[in-house]
Task: inverse folding
């Protein structure tokens, strides 16, 4: 009956194309949602992966980056002098975070930011990322108006090494631009000496957090518990805590994105349903003739379902092509084979659910009624 | 091989029309034997089409029995009834009822597909039947590109596809001009005479009925009279007698 279904669709070209476009839109939304969700989750986990074995001490309920966290520099210094906790103090530092532009999307904490780090401690923050041009570190004891820009930040400022940029009304000389980092917080940041940030943003004597590295990564949780006991006024966050917190923060955006995809598929399903309902109503006489000629009800049902299935599947390849292009444009990974299969399955289910009632109606047509139908 | 193809025993059919019971068929006893060409003649509303649908397993009687090759159709569920229509009964409709998206060849083939015939067998049979009805040249034409007479010929070929025990024709010439009608009636006559095909034809046209072996006049849901016609004989007198019965 596939050939008959194809011929029927062929004779109603405009309707077929419109319905296929609706399915295409639904599948595209679904695919883009999966890509976006993957991208958001991937970005977050890549960011947090860098904090394996790291401990952040910051104010109470602050999230990461801890823009809202404030602690005195003296407290931070006292923590960084603790030798009884099994900390690798050479890999520990205080940091100050200032958001200079809010994120465009709900799940993005900032579009641009400034991170202050004591000169000589930059490597603890930026890891093994090197400079694309200029320097990737400050001169010893640097406290002047200088900045090393992350890749995205440099693009945002449209700056080159040696140029002056304005941060919070102050001219700052760019001394280096970093290569792309896997940590987005580094890419969007202007990294400056701690004292400079405190001065420009009037936060003298304040830092946002202390980043600590245990000597033995396996003792991270144990060290975190001791810090919590010793500094009950502050929050102590390990990678796991940050991940859990980030997942909590991303829950709503992820749900929002998913609901968009599901809504797209529901709309596609309704379009399939109305198209098939219209088709079945128009072809009552035809189904009656088939029944009179000896078509069992299951044959009629399968004829309608096959048509709906073809309608739905026509839209899938171009939609997936668009999703692929979209993911390339976003520099993210396109949906893998498992997700492709899931999307196709979801589309098939949507088509079957959408066509179920029209198919049932078609199968219920009595041969006699159809022959009298005018 | 059954000698009696169809037998009805005191069969009645009552419809509900706007809350009013309409007795379309009232206690008809009818026997049609293999190889017979029977015409049911009567005015609109006489119940002839209703009787045809009962005999063709498309409708169930309100009371009485319809036996098809000895099986009581009323006792069959939808599935077996449908299979019976597919394999044992061929239908020819007044409005042809060809599937509009299929060409002539595919329209003939579809009945055989529904009857479960294999692809190669049904394709050669469809070609053979189209040749039989004189439409080999038009096999690939869509039904909308065929004339009324050609459509009815395709419908006849389709009805014969599964070598049915019974061919039912409901006003097969009702939508055709007289010249085309003659061609269709001659074809039905030939199918009956040459192939031994049993045919029941419903018509309101006495001229069309004169092609049958036996003509029955119906009025108000009952058979008012019948006559047998001999091939090659002048049927005028017999038909005039039946015509009077219709108006009595």
Result:
């Amino acid at each position: 009956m596939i050939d008959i279904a194809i011929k029927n669709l062929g004779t109603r070209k405009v309707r077929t194309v419109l319905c296929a476009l609706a399915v295409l839109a639904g599948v595209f939304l679904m695919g883009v949602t999966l890509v976006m969700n993957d991208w958001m989750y991937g970005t977050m986990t890549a960011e947090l992966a860098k904090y394996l074995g790291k401990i952040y001490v910051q104010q109470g309920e602050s999230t990461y980056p801890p823009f809202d966290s404030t602690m005195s520099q003296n407290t931070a210094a006292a923590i960084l002098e603790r030798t009884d906790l099994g900390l690798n103090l050479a890999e520990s530092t205080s940091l100050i975070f200032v958001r200079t532009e809010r994120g465009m999307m709900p799940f993005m904490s900032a579009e641009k930011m400034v991170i202050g780090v004591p000169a000589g401690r930059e490597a603890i923050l930026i890891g093994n990322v090197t400079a694309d041009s200029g320097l990737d570190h400050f001169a010893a004891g640097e406290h002047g108006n200088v900045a090393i820009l992350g890749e995205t930040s440099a693009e945002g400022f449209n700056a080159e090494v040696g140029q002056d940029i304005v941060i919070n009304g102050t001219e700052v000389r760019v001394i280096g631009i970093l290569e792309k980092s896997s940590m987005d917080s580094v890419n969007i940041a202007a990294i400056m000496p701690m004292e400079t940030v405190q001065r420009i943003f009037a936060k003298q004597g304040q830092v946002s957090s202390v980043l600590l590295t245990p000597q033995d990564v396996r003792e991270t949780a144990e060290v975190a518990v001791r810090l919590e006991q010793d500094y009950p006024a502050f929050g102590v966050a390990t990678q796991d805590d940050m991940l859990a917190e980030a997942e909590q923060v991303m829950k709503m955006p992820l749900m929002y994105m998913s609901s968009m995809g599901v809504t797209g598929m529901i709309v596609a399903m309704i379009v399939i349903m109305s198209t098939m309902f219209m088709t079945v109503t128009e072809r009552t006489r035809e189904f009656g003739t088939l029944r009179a000629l000896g078509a069992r009800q299951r044959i009629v049902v399968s004829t309608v379902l096959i048509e709906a299935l073809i309608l739905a599947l026509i839209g899938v390849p171009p939609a997936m092509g668009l999703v692929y292009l979209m993911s390339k444009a976003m520099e993210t990974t396109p949906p893998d084979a498992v997700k492709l299969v899931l999307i196709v399955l979801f589309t098939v289910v949507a088509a079957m659910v959408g066509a179920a009632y029209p198919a049932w109606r078609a199968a219920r047509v009595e041969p006699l009624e159809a022959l009298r139908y005018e | 091989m059954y000698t009696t193809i169809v037998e009805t025993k005191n069969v009645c059919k009552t419809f509900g029309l706007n809350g009013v019971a309409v007795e379309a068929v009232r206690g008809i006893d009818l026997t049609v034997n293999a190889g017979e060409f029977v015409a049911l003649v009567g005015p609109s509303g006489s119940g002839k089409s209703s009787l045809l649908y009962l005999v063709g397993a498309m409708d169930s009687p309100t009371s009485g029995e319809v036996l098809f090759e000895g099986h009581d159709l009323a006792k069959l569920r939808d599935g077996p009834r449908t299979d019976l229509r597919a394999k044992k009964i061929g239908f020819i409709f007044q409005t042809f009822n060809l599937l509009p998206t299929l060409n002539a060849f595919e329209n003939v083939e579809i009945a055989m597909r529904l009857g479960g015939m294999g692809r190669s067998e049904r394709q050669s049979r469809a070609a053979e039947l189209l040749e039989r009805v004189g439409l080999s040249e038009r096999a690939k034409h869509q039904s909308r590109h065929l004339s009324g007479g050609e459509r009815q010929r395709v419908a006849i070929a389709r009805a014969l596809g599964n070598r049915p025990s019974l061919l039912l024709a409901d006003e097969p010439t009702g939508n055709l001009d007289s010249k085309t009608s003659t061609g269709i009636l001659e074809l039905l006559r030939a199918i009956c005479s040459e192939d031994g095909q049993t045919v029941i034809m419903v018509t309101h046209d006495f001229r069309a009925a004169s092609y049958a072996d036996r003509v029955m006049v119906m009025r108000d849901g009952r058979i008012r009279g019948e006559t047998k016609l001999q091939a090659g004989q002048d049927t005028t007198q017999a038909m005039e007698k039946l015509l009077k019965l219709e108006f009595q």
